[in-house]
Amino acid sequence: MIQDVGMLFLSLGSNPWAIAIVIVAATFVLEDVATVAAALLAADNMIAPSLALTALFVGIFIGDLGLYGLGAAARSREWARRMIGERRMTKGRAWLKRRYVTALLGARFTPGFRLPTYSASGFLGLPFLTFAAVSAGASLVWTGLIFSLVFYFGPMIVENLG
Q1: How many angstroms separate the CA atoms of 131 and 138, rounded?
Q2: How many other CB atoms sit within 10 Å of the CB of residue 140?
Q3: Of 7, 11, 102, 123, whose CB has the highest number of CB atoms within 10 Å?
Q4: Of 58, 2, 64, nearest to 33 (Cα)?
Q5: Distances (CA, A) of 63 to 14, 67, 121, 158
Q6: Mean per-residue pLDDT, 113-128
Q7: pLDDT (tens digit per residue) in 47-77
Q8: What is the pTM of this model?
Q9: DSSP secondary structure string, 101-150?
Q10: Residue 118 to residue 155: CA distance in whole angstroms
Q11: Which pLDDT score, from 0 to 100, does residue 1 have?
């Protein structure tokens, strides 16, 4: 899979803006693969590290906002509200509201938790500005960490392990 994404990036030639657009789009499919590919391309001087990291952040943040929006859109659907039930929504809202920042941070750093936590935030009508701020901060930290590790150590690993 990483090779396919890498080949897509390489097929764009040396246009860093085209590569940045593909990085943004790739985050909607697989964030981690997009992060690794972007960092390796930056390490290989195909794109400036700052542009690659910015493209990653933009794509990931838009995706996070989309998950919140998906939940908010589902809230307006009567069948979704009926399926979950008003009692469970009230209970879930209270539980998540007490732990909102912690839950959002945990979801960013724990595989498989973003979709349910972020969409539940929108579905339960939890504060959007808090969501956006925590999501942006956590995304920047997480993406910056992974990108930096791959940028500095990835070429060495690829060279020695193939």
Answers
A1: 10
A2: 15
A3: 123
A4: 2
A5: 26, 6, 14, 29
A6: 96
A7: 999 999 999 999 999 999 999 999 999 999 9
A8: 0.85
A9: HHHHHHHHHSTT-HHHHHHHHHHTT--HHHHHHHHHHHHHHHHHHHHHHH
A10: 34
A11: 59
